[in-house]
Amino acid sequence: MTIERRGIGMRLSILQYVITVIFSILAVSFWVLQVVEHAQFEEMAENNHQRTLALRAPRGIVFDREGKVLVENRHSYSISIVREHTKDLNRTIRLLAGVLGMDEPGVRTIVERHRREPTYRPITIVQDATLAQVSAVKARRLDFELPDVVVEEVPTRQYPETMAAHAFGYVGEVNDAQVAAGEEGLKSGDIVGQSGIEKVYNAMLMGEDGAKRVVVNSVGREIRTLEEDPPTEGKRLQLTIDYDLQKAVEDAFDATEAAGLTNAGAAIVLDPNTGGILAFASRPAYDPNAFAAGIDRATWASLNIDEDRPLNDRAIQGRYSPGSTFKMAVALAGLEEGIITPDFHAHCAGAATFYGRPFKCWKKGGHGSIDLRHAIEQSCDVYFYTVANMVGVDKINKWATALGLGVKSGIDLPNENQGLVPSTEWKMRVRHEKWYAGETISVGIGQGQVSVTPVSMAVYMATLANGGTRVTPHLLKAVDDGTGWKPVPAPAPQSKVEINPEKLQAIRDGLWMVVNSGGTGATARIAGKDVSGKTGSAQVISNAGRAAARTSKDLRDNGWFVFFAPRDHPTVAGVVFLEHGIHGPNAARVAHHILDTFFAKQDGRPLPPPPTKESLRFDFSDAMAKKQSPPVEPTER
Amino acid sequence: MFERRLYYHIDWPLIIAIIALCSLGVLMIYSTTFDPTRGTARMYATQLYAIVIGMGALVFMLSIDYRTFTDKSHLIYIGVCALLLYVMFFGMVQMGARRWIPLRVFNLQPSEFAKIAVALVLAKFYGENRGAPSWTDLAIGGALTAVPLLLIAKEPDLGTAVTLMPVFLAVAYLAGMRMRILGLMFLCLLLAAPVAWKFALKDYQKSRVSTFLDPSQDAKGAGYQQIQARITVGSGGLSGKGFRQGTQGQLRFLPVAHNDFIFSVLAEEQGFAGVLVALGLYLFVILRALEAARLAKDRLGSYLVLGVLASFTFQVVYNITMSAGLAPVKGLTLPLMSYGGSSMIATLAGFGLILNVRMRRFTN
């Protein structure tokens, strides 16, 4: 072997050692990565490919008293950004806005609002996306262009028919104030009831969201599910609402609007013995479906600036002058306080003078000598001026309150307003003035300071119908938490008062005569059903100042019809209120359709067809309003 | 030409180790490219064909005396350079580089064969000279290496181009180049680095290097692959997640898993145990080839073996280091395991030459 060969051998040996050392270093490096630091990298790998997705719990379904679905859920798609995987948020916003056909600042505003939330929580950009939007986003995802955008299938509230909007309410994303208040562990992005029973019974309806742990690939596509904790559906509620009766109310209001009479009003029909509400409407209404999937700004704005204020629940929030419908409270005060008897006669000459000032009856020629029953039937103003003057405002207040006026009804709906029945104490407390006896006169015919909500009028009639129990109107009948229906007992009555049945009967007789013997409520008559009721036409006080504007519609009187039936052992009571409905008889026509439906259903007859604008035969002449004298404001001197 | 006794001198253990590594590669390619939604991808089959063709090339390179190849090395060298020139003007463009000549069956990548050509021509050049190479010898050898290197770098395919440098260095080293000169060369390289940084490197290359120094500075961009590579390897643990059970490779968090990062997938699915087996096989192949260089009948044989082995070893070590996220990400495949026809055929042909030298150690 030459020296040279030995040189080569030595150099090869050096190479062998170097290679062996390099491979040993590699082995040690891998040992460090794979064995020593394994736990850390394993966690990183899991974070890489595992995601926890929220599974939205459907809200509980709402049924009517007979099990018909009133509110349900449908599937919709929401499109959200998950910033956890975002490389360039601006790019994502720009691309997504383009794909969705939305304006970029709008999308940016939504993202900004949720900026401080954890990045793994999806920011919903579109709720209830259209199929076109969903497919556009999915196509982009396949191109890896929008790996940080997810399309989720979510249950969305659906109101199959837009009825009883104010009773059902609507749902919406929980707002910051609600989250801050920490109500029942609400978290941002939750859908909660914002109004109506959706709000009041939100805790029951909401259910519990589930979660799903999935494996995703590098572009975020779900590969498979690791574990799933299914969502718990919200409790199912049964309401006291009767679908058919509710439909009748809505139909009648639709016809009223179609006839061009008015688009505003309210109606409540309830069971006078329990307070269970059979139908509940406030008009104009809104479409709760518009809120279910996130209302857009334009719709929200238009609902808010609408002069008719459709979001306002007139049935429990509107305060109106009751007009002649208040007369039964005055009569009951007189009877129960022993100041008058049913046979008490007053002489009506078309007007009367009290405290030196003239007060007119609506009937120019007067009613002549008239007793209580006929005074109710004919709605004689002079009779009730006289009685009110004899009884005094505080006793009227006492009995009106016992019947449910001027107080909250306690209905299971949010934001109920309270009406007002004045008293000397009230005037001193609020106005710091003494009550003038002259002011009592106009209270006698439900004008002046008196104001009521439609729901309190329903309670008022129920109390007259059941003989003195001020029932609490309510909507909830039963709850099913998945283990079967459990009836919810009716809430306790607000108060109870002893009423002499004979005295009460005199009032009931008067109410029966209003409808059945040629009184002002004859349009509500149903043969054999002894409908008893009272019309009322009340000036729009709030618009008195605008008289100069001469906008004829706004100045038309409000029309009332309050009722119960049958006269003996009533099973139904309620109120129909038509804002600018001109007068009570028009309201009585609407009530007729409602009562006709009620009794048809009770008797198993076919339900009457929905009224048309012609079939209601409204009276557009302002004759009644003219005949009814505007009361002189007692405070004017 | 092929005497029967030569058959008994074939290095069977080396061949078995090579086949074992090829099989491991096919399994990993199958694992990473299998897509249940589309049925099995055909990549592993393509790789099998390449192995069969490569084995043919191996047998061919084995059956003719290596001195015949070195005698014709200048022709082979010129031929490969011509192909590289052809690629430069008429080659197929893929992923921003002009590297391939499209053939009917597969795309030929001439740069892979340049390694063998350079090894052959350098072995012949230094094998004809006696004594330590002079400055002139080094310059000529360097120039012979530089021509194909620059042609390949121009494609651009800097990764493959760089693998030619170890060929020259190794042959020159074995030919007796002074250690002092070797040191001087490294010094020059070190000094040239900032210049190269400024003028020669493209932006994407710069970002690869700078991200290597701090991967987290660009965790979603260039540093992404490096971080993912480390996660892939680290999450494999001692025994791995199991065949086709890896999440990093299967769910494509790691890009080009069947190619540049195939060793990361092996580490993820087969764990440290699988890594040790693969490292052991590679070490065995390299040491066994060095043994062939030692046993060679003449200096020409030793030089040839080392020339072929140098680029192979360089690529293996660099790729494995990179697949653990310990070196900048560079488009260098892992010979014998990564997906790629030209690379597989050229590598097996190279091993044909190594086996050739060992087999003919007793012939005249």
Q: Segments of chain B where pLDDT lies below 50 for 5+ residues?
A: none
Q: What value does the average pLDDT of chain A take?
A: 87
Number of helices of chain B: 15
* Number of β-strand runs of chain B: 3
Please summarize the sheet with the most strands of chain B: 3 strands, antiparallel
Percentage of residues assigned to helices of chain A: 25-40%
Overall pLDDT metric of chain B = 85
CATH topology of the largest domain in chain A: Beta-lactamase
Nearest-angstrom radius of gyration of chain A? 35 Å
| CATH homologous superfamily placement of the largest domain in chain A | DD-peptidase/beta-lactamase superfamily
- The share of residues in extended strands of chain A comes to 15-25%
Total domain units of chain B:
1
Instruction: Compute the separation of the termini of chain A in Å.
Output: 142 Å
DSSP strand (E) fraction of chain B? Answer: under 5%
Written as H for each helix and E for each strand, in order along the chain, the element string of chain B is: HHHHHEEEHHHHHHHHHH
Strand order, sheet with most strands of chain B? 1-2-3
Strand element count of chain A:
23
The chain-level structural class of chain B is mainly alpha
SS-derived structural category of chain A: alpha+beta
Helix content of chain B: 55-70%
Topology:
The complex is a heterodimer of chains A (637) and B (364).
Chain A: H1 3-36, H2 38-49, E1 50-55, E2 62-63, E3 69-81, H3 89-100, H4 104-113, E4 123-126, H5 131-142, E5 149-158, H6 165-168, E6 171-173, H7 176-181, E7 191-193, H8 196-200, H9 202-205, E8 210-216, E9 222-229, E10 236-239, H10 243-258, E11 265-270, E12 277-283, H11 289-292, H12 297-305, H13 314-317, H14 327-336, E13 346-348, E14 351-354, E15 357-360, E16 368-370, H15 372-378, H16 381-391, H17 393-402, H18 424-431, H19 439-443, H20 454-466, E17 469-470, E18 476-480, E19 485-487, E20 495-496, H21 501-516, E21 532-538, H22 552-555, E22 558-565, E23 572-578, H23 584-603, H24 623-627
Parallel strand pairs in A: 2-10
Antiparallel strand pairs in A: 1-8, 2-3, 3-4, 3-5, 6-7, 8-9, 10-18, 11-12, 11-23, 13-16, 14-15, 17-20, 18-19, 21-22, 22-23
Chain B: H1 4-8, H2 12-33, H3 43-63, H4 66-71, H5 73-90, E1 92-94, E2 97-102, E3 107-108, H6 110-128, H7 135-153, H8 158-162, H9 164-174, H10 179-200, H11 203-213, H12 222-234, H13 262-295, H14 299-323, H15 341-359
Antiparallel strand pairs in B: 1-2, 2-3
